[in-house]
Amino acid sequence: MAQNFIWPGKLFYYPIGNTAAVSLIRDLDPDEDAALLLLGCGDPRNILFSIYSEAEGIDRKLDFTCVDWDPAVLARNVLLFTLVIDKKPLNGSFDIFYHPYLDQATLDLLVSQCRTLATCSANMKTWRESKYGDAIHMSTECTLVELRSLWVKYASMHSLPQAQLTKILTTFKKEFKSTGNTGAAGAASTSRSAGPLMDRASTSGTLTEAFKGFWRTGTTFTDLSSISAATLLNPTFVYSRAGVGIGFHYGSDPLMGFHLVPAFGHLPDAKRSDVLEIVRAEFQSWCLAFQSNHSRRLCTIRIFFSDALLACAALKMLNSTGTYQTGVPAIQWKTHTILFEEEEYRHAPKSFDVVDTSNLDDHVGLLNILVAAIPLLRSSGRATLYLESLLHIQDDAVNDFTARLLADLSLMSTLFGMCPVDFATGYSSRSNVHELLLFDAMQRSVSAGKIRSQFHQVTTWKRVDDGVLPCQYQPHQLGTFLYDLYHSLFEIDDSTTFHAKHRVNLPTAIAKRGNEHYTRESFVLFLKLVRDRHCINPEDWISVMDRFFTVHSADHSMPMDTVNHHDLYASLYRHGVHAVDAYRTDILRPVGVFKAWPFVPPIVRVFITVPRSKLEVFASRPSTPTLVCTVQGPRNLNVFASIHASYGIVTRKGTPAKPSVFFEEDLHGIQGSKPLVLSFVMPARLLTGQFPGYDDPSSLSVTFAVKNNPANVALFVDKLGPMMDVHSVSLMDTQNVIVIPEHPPPSASLSPIKHTTKTGGIGGQGAVTVVMDPECELVENMSVRLTVTEKNIQPAYQARTITPIVEQVSLSTLRITLGDKSQDVCFPLPIAGAKHNLRIARKFLWIEIIVPPQEAVVKDGSRPDPFPIVPNAKTPIPWTIHRLCLDLLPTVDLKAKMLEEWMGLHLGVAFSKRELKTRKNRSTQSDALIYVKESIYQIMICATGLSSQSTSSQHIFCLTDKATSNFDTVIFVDQIRYDLSAHTIVCDAYVLPLTRKLRLKIDKNLDRAIYGWVKPDFVQLGKGEIASWKRLLPVLAERCRSWKHQSTCEYIQKDGSLLVPLSDKVEEKPLCSCGEAQDVAALERAPNWKSLAKYCTRIALSPIFGVSYLEKITRTDRRCTVCRARAKMICPECKKDRYCGKPCQKKDWKRHKGMYHDPFEIKEKK
Q1: Per-block mean pLDDT, blocks of 10 residues, the chain (1166 long)
Q2: Dihedral (C-alpha) 685, 691, 693, 699: value to the nearest 10 degrees?
Q3: CA angle 656, 662, 665 (to 5 degrees)
């Protein structure tokens, strides 16, 4: 197991989501079908919202594979999907899904639907042939069995014998009532679903009232008649892996999964009924979109009951070996292994365009998620991995993400072949400003002992360039880095190291460490990924591992790590990653437990039976300690953390020479009567006693123990003693210990892919060589060697008549030109191309390009391509700015009360502290990205009516060259909309790029359009900003595109490549013509713009935000220049004085204008 074995002392049931719904297709080409994998899928809100988010006219097929470890979550999801497919009343469907208590009519609907599902799910054949089988597929037969069992329970719960039913009702009511008395803690988390209006939502009292009402009545109803009728317990909230009638998470709130910003934006004094009306309207819209999608056979949903990491391992094995019977356990505490339905998986996706991991990072660790999920992504440039976390491990948001990764992000990105897009570009189109504010507020509450703080961090991982070959690393450096990572992963296990590191505040450190996520097997799987991903040849890999073990032997800073060495060695061998010398050379004697074996393999699997009575120690300690197995004798102790457990009886099978086991599972699990059986893999050599220093087999014991760490010791040492042993038996106890050979999984024997080379216009290109710094912590530079094989340029190159010319053409690509030939060279990270070096060998016909990686925070404005677009089947796709459907987004009421209270703050905090400083020193510092952000800020401030220069919102903006006062781009803003899942706002706008030829053609109409309605705003652009805007405009058009590119699209070049933008020069067109006159109904309704609509392209313009894990975003509150209250806005022109609102800004205008604004500055067209 790649994660620690945890005792389930307190499990929680999460039947409803705890973050607002997001579109899982927000980064994909709308013209192509997509396969999506949801790990820890939770409730179906993201599936429903993704389908709802599709623009009208898009008919691509979406295939969702939903993995969850709790069958109750999956059973409820299928129940809801089928209710919608059957067109049952949506209000009733909402109540069934979100209300723990129902009225009689709604319960009857639930029972009827569950009986239908139970009939349809008698077996895989009946399910496939049912009316649901075309849309909802079961990945394994076990999944169907588990779900059917729950549907039968749902249908029959209220028909149980009275005593049994009363017990369930009493248990649920008691826990539900005690949770409801906890107060408003959950409402604080619900407020994050209001995004930029989080502060208003959290202080209004409305969400607190709704949260308390839900936990008091078990419904979201506000009218007494509906509340009084809903008295029947909803069985879908009763049964789960947490138990019967228990475990419903105390922070659950039906409102969390919806977008609450329209309620608090349109209605500053929104009541509970207003919020619930919007929530139900959203739910109905999502369900109707799903109905429509289903009727057109565009959606497939696959249900997969499994632990997320184990599901990934099984899918990877299926992908690489074609084996449907994977042998991978489906879940801890169960014995069945994952057997994919062959009929389903002949055609079902085994690799994916999108993998969404929910907030599994909190529960299984970031490194485990990356190792498991990345191999399942398709090789195309559009493949996307979404990661989330809610629980922070650092008090500073800037450091939290790096602390989770345990190593430098640039170096880890080269190893994984992917990186977060906001890390690569330095900005995000998704706002987490509200999360930062909530984080700071919760930190203050934590210090006051009130609640545990959360911070919702979302990262989007993509390949920087899908043309990058595997990388090469210097074995000494890679081995050193890997050992440092090993040390970072497991120093927490060593009490000496842990106490020394946290001597100053040990209690806090113990409280924060929680459950450790990683085992030695986790680290081994990471090694396997690195080796296979980069096709490291066997000789180099042995050198890497030799360096690792050299440092491992020399480092004595973790003295207690020695007890884990054999756990590491066994995992290395089992996964085919490395065999330590003894495994390759030593021949083990068939003695002791092996006396009848003709051959003793290097590794074996040990089963130990633990009586139920020994587990009572956990009943008195409702906690979740990490557990281990040990093999110990008089002289040696060895700990093994990768354990599988299940309740039942294990018996010997086979012959003494070829032993195996048979397992009879206790289907009642922890509630049953059979003992607990644990199994783990270990080196056979420890059980032979044949080597110096090893214990005699007869003196060895196999032990089940609580892991010895500070938190566990505090809870269990009084009961278990200093060794923390739960149960121990002799190795020779044949009744309670069984040892059998362990066969490595099929994937362990796969040969690594060999290195390949690419050929271009100049010649062959080898792998990228990554060089680390002397400490082996960072990427110092990357290099690629080109072999000049093009015959036509070889003589000139050797004669020194032509010299390579290098130009950076994208975030991670250099173009090498040699004579009349050129070739693009791709790197796995964004690069600082201007700092490149060349090594030229004319005699031997090669060129080596050496370039450093781009800094994560670029302070000199030298980022070459801040708005990258990647080609996908001759269609440009925005790489870092997410897609959206403008017509489905609610509009912002610009006349709503207290608009400036939240809007000014939201727009202002888009800048980091560093960027704010740069804005002040514009005359001495140059940063094109910051100034684009600033011009966007100016447009947003004026378009929302918050500018002191206007009494109403501005609609027309002319992007003007500050040096010449000429403008060549006009933006018409129609509406301001809420970008719901990105927690920000967006301008629904149209752009008119002006060329000299077009100006002559439309000059009169242009003057009437610009000056005939309201005075335009001339946005002054400095040096470099015009080119940046020209690069941004195609991204803004593509992100909201509902039309298709034509075969005659100007982006498509003669060689089939894409040229986007067409030009970044003044008075030259950056956009293709495919989007002109598309979706321009709003322009056609405006008399002055109607004649120009056919030349315009619709765009979605929104703020771009700083990256909270790269630099500090929030700052101490600034104060109003006039009244010294908290400032919520800044003058959009000079960026000097701040104000609490427009009244104070107007009051100060005379002084402010004379001090900071040039009265002779002309802002008219020349």
Answers
A1: 87 93 95 96 97 89 97 98 98 98 98 98 97 97 97 97 95 83 66 90 90 94 96 97 90 95 88 95 97 95 97 95 92 93 94 96 94 94 91 78 90 95 93 78 53 78 84 96 95 77 66 72 97 94 96 91 95 95 86 92 96 91 89 96 96 93 91 94 94 92 92 88 95 95 70 61 92 95 95 94 93 93 93 94 95 83 79 85 96 88 86 80 69 92 82 88 90 96 96 93 84 82 88 96 93 89 93 96 89 95 92 69 76 77 86 70 34
A2: 60
A3: 155
Q: Phi and psi dihedrals of 1044, rounded to 5? A: -110, 145
The answer to whether residues 297 and 134 touch, using CB atoms and an 8 Å cutoff, is yes
Pick from 534, 540, 644, 658: which is nearest to 596 by CA?
658
Phi-psi region of 557 (alpha: psi -120 to 50; beta: other; left: phi over 0): alpha
Residue ranges with strand state E in 475-634? 603-610, 626-632
Mapping DSSP onto H, E and C, the string for 818-878 reads: ECCEEEEEECCCCECHHHCEEEEECCCCEEEEEECECCCCCCCCCCCCCCCEEEECCEEEE
Q: ∠ CA 162-167-169 to the nearest 5 degrees?
A: 90
Question: β-pairing, 384-389 with 457-462?
Answer: antiparallel
For 225-277, give the DSSP string: HHHHH--EE-GGGTEETTEES--B-TT--TTTTS--HHHHHH-TT--HHHHHH
> Which of 530, 1159, 421, 446 lies closest to 811 in space, CA to CA?
421
User: CA–CA separation, 134 vs 132, rounded Å?
Assistant: 6
Round to the nearest angstrom and report the end-to-end CA distance of the chain.
71
Which contiguous run of DSSP H or E holds residue 792? none
Query: Cα(362)–Cα(1148) distance, rounded to whole angstroms?
Result: 49
The edge-to-edge listing of strands for the beta sheet with 62-68 is 136-138, 299-305, 62-68, 34-39, 354-356, 384-389, 457-462, 419-420
Cis peptide leading into 710, omega within 30 of 0?
no
Retrieve residue 926's tokens.
């140059």
Q: What angle do CA 988, 1111, 502 make, to 5 degrees?
A: 140
Q: What is the pTM of this model?
A: 0.93
Tokens 């800037």 locate to 398
User: To which H or E segment does residue 953 belong?
Assistant: none
Residue 701: φ, ψ to 5°: -125, 150
| Diameter over CA atoms, the chain | 100
